[in-house]
Amino acid sequence: MNRMSDPVSKAVNGNALNEDHLDPTVKLRGPGVGWRRFFLFGASVLATAYAAGMMTDVLGSDQLTIMEMVVIAFFTINFAWISVSFFTGVVGLVLRGLKIDAITLKRLKPISRKGSLRSKNVVVIPVYNEDPNRVFAGLRASYESLAATGEIAAFDFFVLSDTRDPDIWIAEEMAWAKACSDLKARGRIFFRRRAENTERKSGNLKEFCETYAANYDHMIVFDADSVMSGEAMVNMAYLMENNPDAGIIQSPPQPTGRQTLFARILQFISRVHGPTMSAGLSFWCMGSSNYWGHNAIIRVQAFIDCCGLPVLSGKPPMGGHILSHDFVEAAFMRKAGWRCWLIPQLEGSWEELPPNLIDYAIRDRRWCQGNMQHARLLFAPGFRPLSRLHFFMGVMSFGSSPLWLLLLLSSTIATLQNTQLTYSFFPSQFTMFPQWPVDRSFEMLVLLVFTIGMLVVPKIISILMVCLGRDRKKYGGVMVLASGVLETLYSALQAPIMMMLHAQFVFSVLTGNQVGWDAQERDDTGVPLAAAFKTHRTIIVIGLIWGAVALFVDAAFFWWLSPILAGLVLAPWLTHWSSSLAIGRAARRMNLFVTPEETEKPEELQTLARLSAEAPDANVKDGLLRLIEDPFANALHSALLPVRKPDRRTQIEIGIIYEKLARLGVESLTRDEKLKILSWPVKPLDQIMAGKKDDDAKLSDNLA
Amino acid sequence: MTDLTIASQGFSYAAFESAAVTRLIDETAHAWLRSFKVDNPQAHQRLVNELRTALAQDAVPATEKESMQDILDQAAHDAIASWLANLSGQDDCFGATGFAMMRCAFLSANCDHIWSERFLDRDHANGDLAAALSIQMMCPTPVLKSCVMPRQSLDRRAVS
């Protein structure tokens, strides 16, 4: 592609005319991009080679069996995977410790803007059957924060509904009207519902791009549970304005707001260790960073021009529409020459986590399907090498689990084989001395410590940095150490469960099973013990059988495997107790797993909590009944319906449903029937039931 | 001979209005006022008058229409829409969306029933009501700017 005629060059050159308007202090550039990657991957390769050599030495002290070779192969792949993560963490720790900007490698300083925003931006919130109270509470918290910056004129908000539940649909409309009215934001907060929700979230955004997006320069994409501070949003828009070759700028969202023990543990470690990993990633990815699907700002025209997703050949789950669209959109941006940045120091960006392990696994099942699809894009022509690496990392984030499982299983088989071997002190050929068995237990221990160290050292140092830092009070003071120890124990027990679940998901996807599209659970819901047992029954059985075999093979090997076996067998209790809201709150009282968002709650999260408390879930009631009873809801719904005419068949169907409604009442209609009559404009619905309400009787009295 | 055919032949409509039709007109007016949350007797009478006038002027025999109720509903819709169009100066009050939008604005403005007695009042200068409606007008979407988002191919470089 001719560099001067590509869309990025055009945009940059267009802006170059106004080069003096660009603020050089926020220019996203940094030295030694190649060297950074050379260091990271070089160090990873060296560490992997060393570990693989040591493993070969340990297992091959006598003679290598075929199964031992398999073990070495799986070990090498898995070690390479964790060593990239380890060195990313090491770099992140250095950058954090020295307070150096991961991109410019200069002293880290806050973004200071020179002048007001010149661009027009939109915050888009794609929703699908989400709790409207939570969605609009997040929107209002972000809107109010933005208004406080004085830059609200540069932003609109747009709720893009794909909701298929009639009750939630009507509640969304009412919540939108209330938000417009309360915030005096008519003409600034918009709402539209898609009639057909093809291609899920990416289709929702595509439809927006083809209708209203061209009104804006940049769009900030939210998830249904996202909240961002006004400062963060304005800074992102400012960075976009001053970096005309930037296609996507991603902020690192911090998980917050959940109270169950499970969520609190994850929130804590994400807050403590997340910035380390973000800084490390940003250091070596530079302008080839990834897009995580939300809490990011996107250049609208670039997105429209080059991010229309292809449809993969074949059937789902590996073919069809692309599910995990974010990685692919970033790859297409890079393919067209736009840069994608991760800015670790962008604070004021929040999201929420699933409240328990089962909901977390449900989300992972969805992501697994999406990420495994990316395997088909790994070798597609035109993508940049780092985009392919992001695809690979996405695949490996789930694919590594079956590899670990295979490593452990092959180790068990190899150990079983070794116990069957009889050692020969005097081999067939002549030797001066007997061949003594070689004891490699020390090397084995070193290898174990080395591997575990790669997994946990960056995290432990992050915890120590927080503990020794000035901000430790925000994390619960000295209790941050106890939180760190408990988190390490918990994650060690949870890891085998996730390994089994992920292995199951990968197998399920590869054998052609696909997952549906459900809204994520966003309340602090617990998991009853019986439900946890039901979910994990296979895992428990596998754990027990595996433990028995290991004990039968070699008691030492059993103890070697015991941390993994413990996680598997204890899975239901771990899931049940970690989902407890009471234990989560008790942990908070004990200053365990505390995050700065709790000790010094930002204004936006305070607003979110207040609005969520004001608007209970009960606001989502029967949508059709609401339209019949409340003329405003009725008028609003009619006003928001797209102008279209039903075909003859649909007209007849609607007529039949109306007849049923008039004769048997709202309760007689199914969800699909309600959805159908709500989807088409008709004469005011409330007239159908005229005279059946109390206020109607009052009205009659007045008229009389 | 139905009431309507009598009306279409030039007789005085009111003289021939049956009790059933009176009741139907009343109920229709009642339902439409309820959909605007208006509970004012004068407004009710104005709508009843509009409906009677519409029936009297209707030249089409009732047998050619689907039902008397449809005629009345259409008449009520048209009467209110033309009043709202006059009031707001907007021409698109007759379409489903425009009408619903105006209904929303009226319901918001009239939440404490201060405008109920002005409903359908064509004699009063309604500048203040028009201003109240314009403040309450909802705007669900901005200006439509259609474009095509081309599907990328996995076989070649990105479209430039």
TrEMBL record, chain A:
Q: Which pathway does the UniProt entry assign to this protein?
A: Glycan metabolism; osmoregulated periplasmic glucan (OPG) biosynthesis
Recite the UniProt keywords alphabetically.
Cell inner membrane, Cell membrane, Glycosyltransferase, Membrane, Transferase, Transmembrane, Transmembrane helix
**InterPro entries according to UniProt:** Glyco_trans_2-like, Glycosyltr_2/OpgH_subfam, Nucleotide-diphossugar_trans
The entry's localization annotation reads: Cell inner membrane
On the tree of life, the source organism's domain of life is: Bacteria
Which Pfam families does this one have?
Answer: Glyco_trans_2_3
The record's SUPFAM superfamilies line, in alphabetical order, gives:
Nucleotide-diphospho-sugar transferases (SSF53448)
Q: Name one GO molecular function term.
A: hexosyltransferase activity
Where is each Glycosyltransferase 2-like domain found?
Answer: 220-423
Where exactly are the transmembrane stretches of this chain? Answer: 38-59, 71-98, 391-416, 444-468, 538-558
Membrane-topology descriptor? Multi-pass membrane protein
Among Gene3D superfamilies, the record links this protein to: Spore Coat Polysaccharide Biosynthesis Protein SpsA, Chain A
Q: Which GO terms describe its cellular component?
A: plasma membrane
Similarity-based family: Belongs to the glycosyltransferase 2 family. OpgH subfamily.
Q: What is this protein called?
A: Glucans biosynthesis glucosyltransferase H
This protein's species is Thalassospira alkalitolerans
Automatic annotation (TrEMBL), chain B:
Its domain of life? Bacteria
Q: What is this protein called?
A: Uncharacterized protein
Organism field: Thalassospira alkalitolerans
